[in-house]
Amino acid sequence: MSYESPSMPPQPPVSASVFEFPKFEVPKFEVPKMEIPSAFREMAEKGIAQAKEQYEKMKAAAEEATDLLETTYATASRGCSGYGVKVIENTRANCDAAFDLMTELVTAKSYAEVVELSSSFIRKQFETFAVQSRELAEHVQKVANETTEPLKESFTNAFKKAA
Fold it and tell me: Exposed site from 29, 75, 89, 110, fewest CB < 10 Å?
């Protein structure tokens, strides 16, 4: 149902053509054809070739460094695990010695025997501690050498290549 006013004339229906973009042609510009001088072209090609060569060298160096770091990390990890195992073994030995002392102290017949057992235990433990500390220090030194040696060699080789 539409309402038409008696005073207004009827309007024609709105068509889609009113909302269309105007049609026009994009002007064509002629680009002058220039010949690039051969010297410039050769220089550009040479620069591109050098850039590719340097990229390949950098890529190879980065891969080599990555492999070196992975190897170094694996060596350090194994060394730390070995150190932890040695600490656990030392702790076990020290605990066993302490339990043995307690067993002997419980069966002691006199105070003098308790003092003698305690003094003997302390002397043995001090000697054991010295040996264990030396072994751990040797292990740490060995791991440090095994870990840093590949790095030293790599840096030495890199400086030789650069020189």
Answer: 29
C-alpha dihedral, 72 to 76 to 79 to 85, nearest 10°: -140
Could you say which DSSP state residue 14 is in? P
Q: What is the pTM of this model?
A: 0.60
Token readout for 42 is 């050769």
Beta carbons within 8 Å of 71's beta carbon, 6+ residues apart: 150
Residue 90: how many other CB atoms lie within 10 Å: 17
Give pLDDT tens digits for 67-119.
Answer: 888 988 999 999 999 999 999 999 999 999 999 999 999 999 999 999 999 99
Task: Give the CA distances from residue 28 to residues 24, 31, 32, in Å, rounded to whole numbers and listed in that order.
Answer: 12, 9, 12
